[in-house]
Amino acid sequence: MIDKNPEKIKNMFNALASRYDFMNFAISLGIQKIIKQKSVGLIKIKKGARIADLCCGTGEIAELLARNENVDKVFALDFSPEMLQIAKTKRKSGKISFIEGDCTNLPFESSSLDGCTLGFGLRNFENYEKVVSEIARVLKNGGFFLHLDLFKGNKPVNKIFDILAVILAKIFSKSPESYKYLILSKNSFLSPEKLACAIETQGLKCCKIRKWAFGMVSAQLFIKDCSQQG
What we know:
Blueprint: H1 6-16, H2 20-27, H3 32-40, E1 49-54, H4 60-66, E2 71-78, H5 81-90, E3 96-100, E4 113-119, H6 128-138, E5 139-150, H7 155-172, H8 176-188, H9 192-200, E6 204-212, E7 217-224
Parallel strand pairs: 1-2, 1-4, 2-3, 4-5
Antiparallel strand pairs: 5-7, 6-7
Helix pairs in contact: 3-4, 7-8
């Protein structure tokens, strides 16, 4: 059983923050930015949209959203103050507001947002179902939820990734043990298809699943459909 105590996870990301973007670039061999761009490209965004980017990290997805002319406001939320500080330094769009907050208790009114995105964070929660429940609560009917994360994918490629991540973490990271956790959390998480089925129980209908890097990275796009709820 992996320890996903919230305080422990927060401390881990605070420690990773200063080299987070560099390590993501190195471990992904430079393709993580392209995958984020492709993922955001799956969304049809309505004019005047207000979107929350949850587990925003250093704000890459928030910035991609803010570049869309139809987006009015992006709320970039994370529970790591160190990550948020870097995001504030790097992302200068006036459309973005930064919020230190908890995804299991979102600081938004019910049915108030046109969309939510969550990249590389859901598998870090002790109770990811609570996070999904909160996302469903704050979305308007017809609003979207884009989820993006690492998965096991192709077995040989997955093994190579795990070995590479450990080696690079030992060389470049100040917190190499954190990348062992990353590998464990990825390998024990649900498949994209099983995760999509679990998320659909909250009234969020899966309309797209895309995979890259031999299935090791996947995006799932959901639409809130109140008619699907009992």
